[in-house]
Write a structure and sequence with these properties.
Blueprint lengths: L1 E5 L2 H19 L7 E5 L6 H12 L8 E5 L1 E3 L10 H8 L11 E2 L8 H14 L5 E4 L21 E4 L2 H7 L13 E4 L2 H5 L4 E5 L5 H9 L17 E6 L8 H10 L17
Helix pairs in contact: 1-2
Bound molecules: 2-phosphoglycolic acid (PGA).
């Protein structure tokens, strides 16, 4: 597993956006061989989405031949609720890029049969021969997507009960009212993420420091489900300095030294788009 440390949230977002853009244009996607991108919601990826929107407006990148799969969705929130993940993605990303609507995939948290809906999602991912790049966040409790502590590390898309810590963290989007945060969500499994050809995990801020310590310096453990990415052949943790606060100085130094040639976000742009 790689770890790329950037000085702050803005630099991390710039690196993330440009890395995703580069992955897409290097793949030279076509209509019959699209690039398949897994995407997260949450506060952390907002900066990355802004960078991608900007690159799309400038013509550096196009999403015409990109298929997206979002990681998770609350159960029971109306589709147009401002905090539904579909609405979040439309407001912050999809409405601002050139992606065809039919290329966008979500779990339906209002489906009549939620089990069947989860199976449909796995099949839909399979119909595109899997995900090329899965971008994810990390919960304060070390979750990836909504795979809360104790989730099976080989889990597939399913319904999950949200941890109290996650509902408390997300209550900031629901007027600080934890009772308004849904109790259940549909989420891709850890196994679903592991099947992606590449995984990029974003972590920003001091409140992610404890999780990062467990995920980077300790063993694979179902109590910190992102730690499963240690077994992935192409996984990268991209974080800011604050998120490394509980790592050993030596660990941070090691990864910075290993990645010194890859830290500059400018190196991720095609030559003609560099400033
Ligand atoms: P956040 O959420 O980006 O809002 O911190 C991350 C997550 O819970 O996966």
């Amino acid at each position: 597993m790689r770890m790329i440390v950037q000085r702050d949230y803005d630099q991390m977002s710039l690196w993330a956006g440009r890395y995703v853009a580069r992955s897409i244009y290097m793949a030279e996607p076509k209509q019959n061989s699209p690039f398949v991108l897994g995407l997260p919601t949450g506060s952390t990826p907002l900066g990355m989405y802004r960078v991608l929107i900007d690159l799309c407006r400038k013509g550096t990148i196009s999403f015409q031949n990109v298929i997206t799969f979002n990681m998770d969705e609350y159960v029971g929130l109306p589709i147009d609720h401002p905090e539904s993940y579909r609405r979040f993605m439309e407001d912050h990303f999809f409405n601002h890029i050139d992606i065809p609507k039919e290329n966008i995939n979500f779990l339906d948290g209002n489906a009549g049969d939620l089990k069947e809906e989860c199976m449909r999602y796995e099949e839909a991912i399979g119909s595109f021969e899997g995900i090329d790049l899965f971008v994810g966040g990390i919960g304060n409790d070390g979750h990836i997507a909504f795979n809360e502590p104790g989730s099976s590390l080989s889990s597939r898309t399913r319904i999950k009960t949200l941890a109290e810590e996650t509902r408390a963290a997300n209550s900031r989007f629901f007027g600080e009212e934890i009772s308004q945060v849904p109790t259940y969500a549909l989420t891709v499994g850890v196994g679903t993420v592991m099947d992606a050809r590449e995984v990029l995990i974003l972590a920003s801020g001091l409140n992610k420091a404890r999780a990062l310590k467990h995920v980077v310096e300790e063993g694979i453990n179902h109590m910190w489900t992102v730690s499963a990415m240690q077994l992935h052949s192409r996984a990268t943790i991209l974080c800011d300095e604050d998120a490394t606060d509980e790592l050993k100085v030596g660990t941070v130094k090691y990864f910075k030294q290993m990645e010194q040639r890859n830290l500059d976000p400018d190196s991720l742009l095609p030559p003609e788009a560099r400033s």
